[in-house]
Write a structure and sequence with these properties.
The chain contains 13 helices and six strands. It is an alpha/beta fold. The chain has three domains: 144 residues, Rossmann fold, CATH 3.40.50; 59 residues, Histone, subunit A (Orthogonal Bundle); 71 residues, Helix Hairpins, CATH 1.10.287. β2, α2 and β3 form a beta-alpha-beta unit. α3 crosses α4 and α11 packs antiparallel against α12.
Length: 291
């Protein structure tokens, strides 16, 4: 049994390459994009089109409501439950996406964490609304100095969850993470897709223009009343929300989406290049590499 992991920076062409390979291997695709799991924002997340979804069976695309909390630990559980149902028909499956935490969750595993009590979650959410993210960052510095030194302090979801775990357990979140890799009952083949940076950045810019032409502004306008939801804290929508608020003009918002997407792509590559198990290919080389 084999899981082929196809990852890489945003806009590099993972979806098209994965579909072509899945058609060659007659297997399913498991989405590993943390925003594409949500319904209602297909343009902002560059989700597979209806035509693409019809060509190959996909899993975990538009399967969650925007208000539903979802994280890498839950994703690991869901994928590990799904795979045994796929193996009887085909001993190969493809996991495709650029959300690094989701890919790592399936490949390496995440330590079991306690379910957060509703009252703890609500208290943290109230503090975030009343005092801002900075107050939770300051609390995390006291509760878990080790984690505070490494966590992305601008990532609202991760900071809030870390504080929730610390409050509920009474111990630093970092002490609960073993960092040990879980053994899987299947082989994992990791493929990273990449191209020359100028070409990638041009693809990013052109994709943003295509998203705008496809109706990104209307999608953002429809989602504006829900902007407080964590699912909508994503490049593309944040900038459009600023435009709709009147704090940024339309041209600036579009150019900022391009810039922030390029920054995100560089962060993805920095993360992925730490993994020695990844075999790097150009998108057009993928299918032939499995002939």
């Amino acid at each position: 049994m084999k899981l082929i992991v196809i990852t890489g920076p945003t806009a590099v062409g993972k979806t098209a390459a994965a579909i072509a390979l899945a058609e060659r291997l007659h297997c399913h695709i498991i989405n590993a994009d943390s925003r594409q799991v949500y319904r209602g924002m297909p343009i902002a997340t560059a989700a597979p089109t209806p035509d693409e979804l019809s060509r190959v069976p996909h899993h975990f695309v538009a399967c969650r409501e925007l208000h539903e909390p979802y994280n890498a630990w839950q994703y690991e559980q869901d994928v590990m439950s799904l795979l045994p149902t796929l193996w009887p028909d085909n001993d190969t499956a493809i996991l495709c996406g650029g959300s690094m935490m989701y890919v790592d969750a399936v490949c390496n595993g995440i330590d079991d964490m306690p379910d957060i009590l509703p009252e703890v979650r609500q208290a943290v959410k109230a503090q975030l609304a009343e005092q801002g993210l900075e107050s939770l960052v300051a609390e995390l510095e006291k509760l878990d100095p080790a984690l505070s030194a490494t966590i992305d302090r601008k990532n609202t979801v991760r900071v809030c969850h870390a504080v929730e775990v610390c409050r509920q357990t009474g111990v630093p979140y970092s002490t609960l993470r073993s960092g040990q890799k879980k053994q899987r009952a299947f082989d994992i083949v990791k493929i990273g897709l990449n191209m020359e940076r100028d070409l990638l950045f041009d693809r990013i810019n052109r994709r943003v223009d295509a998203m705008v032409a496809a109706g990104l502004e209307d999608e953002a306008r429809r989602l504006l009343p829900l902007r407080h939801l964590n699912a909508l804290n994503t490049v593309g929508l944040k900038e459009m929300f600023a435009y709709l608020d009147g704090t940024m003009d339309r041209h600036t918002a579009i150019e900022r989406i391009k810039k922030n997407t390029r920054v995100y792509a560089k962060k993805q590559l920095t993360w992925l290049r730490r993994d020695p198990d990844i075999r790097w290919l150009q998108p057009h080389e993928l299918v032939d590499s499995f002939s």
